[in-house]
Every structure is written in structure tokens, then in C-alpha cells.
Amino acid sequence: MNIRWIVAALAVVALAGVCVQLGRWQLHRLDERKARNTVTRTNLAARAAPIDQILGPPGVVGDQHAWRTVVLSGRYDASKQVVLKYRNVQDKPGFEIVTPLVLADGKAVLVDRGFLARQSSELMPLHVPAVPSGEVTVTGRLQRSERGGHTNGGTPDDGTARLINGPDYAKVLGLNLYDGYVTVDKQEPANDPAFSSFPGPEIDDGPHFFYALQWFFFALLALGGLVYFSRQQATAGKPAEQQPEAVERPEAHAGAPD
């Protein structure tokens, strides 16, 4: 067995190990998703409550608060409204309109008022429904601030942004904002009918289990191939069996001896 074969065998074993780890990672993600689904189901079933009772003084929407129903009362600040570009809801491209709602205690909440489907190839919505004047009561779902890694998509620029991020918006809008936002379920006065509502959360196990099976299968396939080719290599390395020499038989004479 030469050195090249040994190196190739070690590479296959390493590849199988990587596949096993990827399979375990998918199972870990499955456990995380199941835990998140449990929290989501609990929050969806919980009764609506004021935002300060749910979040407390920190004012940060965490994973444990996602999809919790809150009731907010205040006034919209239309002068600090932000248009979210490049959004997609149920495979439809469009825009979302985020308007700060200033509460009685002076703090503000970013409210995603709804989705406007894009018409043709417009870069901005042709018409943005006006905010109601006066006191507004919003019943909606809490969502975490969106984060885009190292991008600055959560910082409003000229009234537009790509993400909804409380701390980034606060720096530009000059408001004392909660870290997170609310999507509208119901509003009084009623929300403009031009807005499309948002779908609920996906509460399923996702594809993680089947992805894990695929990675484990790839690991078995790699190891099985290694065993097969090892046997082939071993067989090829054996000396060929000695074949018995053929005994030359004298040719029969055509005629009888004299």
C-alpha cells in the first residue's frame, strides 16, 4: 500500500467526519427550532398586554417575546416615517411602511403599518397611506430588531431603509425607541385598506431532520467506498497464482509404425 493510497484514505475518513458533524449540526438546529416553536405557540396564545409590562425597563424585544401580542396607545409621528425597500411578502416584492408611535410616557415604538405590493418596476411606492390623526390604539405582534450583519441597512437614509432596527433608527430619528418593532394586527382608527397584512409565523420542524439524514448518508457512502476500494487494492496487490505448466502431448502419428 503506497503513500498516495494512505493519504487518499485519510482524506476520505476526514470527509466522512465532516459529514457527521454537519449532520449533528442540523440536529442541533432542529432542537433550536423546536424550542423556538414552543415559545411562539405560547406567545400566540397569550393575552394582549401593554408593552412596558411585557418588556420591562430594558425595553428590548428578545427571542422570548417574538409574536407576543401588545396593545399600544399614542400618536404617530409621520414626519419620521420610514419606507422599507426590497421587502418580500408571500413571494410578492414591495415596500413596508414603518412609522414611530409616540406613547404617553414619551417613549416610542416602531410600528410596521403594513405591506404595499410593488407596481411594475417602481423604486418607491406611488402612494403611501396617511397616518391617522390624533390618538391611535394599535394591537400587534412584537418582533425583534432586524440585523443584517455588517451592512448598514438598518440605518434610515433619506427616509428609506432595508431593515427595521430600533437602536439604529433611534440614532437618526432622535427618538427614545424600544429595541424591536410591532406589526399591526388591528388598529383604531382602522388601518388603511391599501395595506396588506402579514402572514403568521411558520411553526414546523423545517427540513433540518432530512438534511441531517443526508449528511449521515454521505458519511456512510464515503466510508463504504473506502472499504470497497481498500479491498480492491488488497486484491490487486496479491501475486498471481502459479498456473500448472501445460504438458505437451506428442502428436499422434498418422500411420502405424513399420
UniProtKB/TrEMBL annotation:
Keywords: Cell membrane, Membrane, Transmembrane, Transmembrane helix. It is a multi-pass membrane protein. It holds the Pfam family SURF1. It is found in: Cell membrane; Membrane. One of its GO terms (cellular component) is plasma membrane. Residues 143-162, 234-258 are annotated as: Disordered. The chain crosses the membrane at residues 209-229. Belongs to the SURF1 family. This is SURF1-like protein. It comes from Kribbella soli.
